[in-house]
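An instance as discussed:

___
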Amino acid sequence: MKIVITGGPSSGKTALIEALIAKGHTGMHEVSRKLIRWGLENGYNDYFLEDPEGFSQKLWLGRVAQYESADKLLAEQPEKPVFMDRGIHDIVAYLRYQNQHHPQWEQALEKYAYDAVFLLPPWEAIYQKDTERFEDYETAQALYQQLKKIYTDSHSRVYEVPKDTIANRIDYLLNTLH
């Protein structure tokens, strides 16, 4: 099973993926942080906002590569789910937030189905900016709504993860999958 863990910025996705990996599950880290760092090293203050098309194109390639890697892992061990920190659909959701529409990418989403999507809601108590997270909390809330819409519209099984400890969130994910 290909499982997406998504949500607005600073909602606990990466901590959840890291905890799942520490427990022996297969997880894939977020691709965009590498691109954001590359952008900072190459003169961009905010690569996505300054070049949303270029950023999203590179991100698309990276996430498709992750999707294909998950297929290979599942072919070897079909009983072991692969947890992914964000999915391909997130790219379109972020572009929609910027009022940009790319019909070719929106249509291509049909090729990339996930078995389940776990959506982490905005959580102000844990929200923080860092060197690769520029969005404020209000933007995180708006992005969450776009993410919820894109995955729901794609007929994915979407589950909202409760605001809770990492251990309880993991229990929620694993219990939902079984």
Summary: The chain has eight helices and five strands. The chain has a mean pLDDT of 89. The beta strands are 2-7, 26-28, 82-85, 116-120, 158-160.
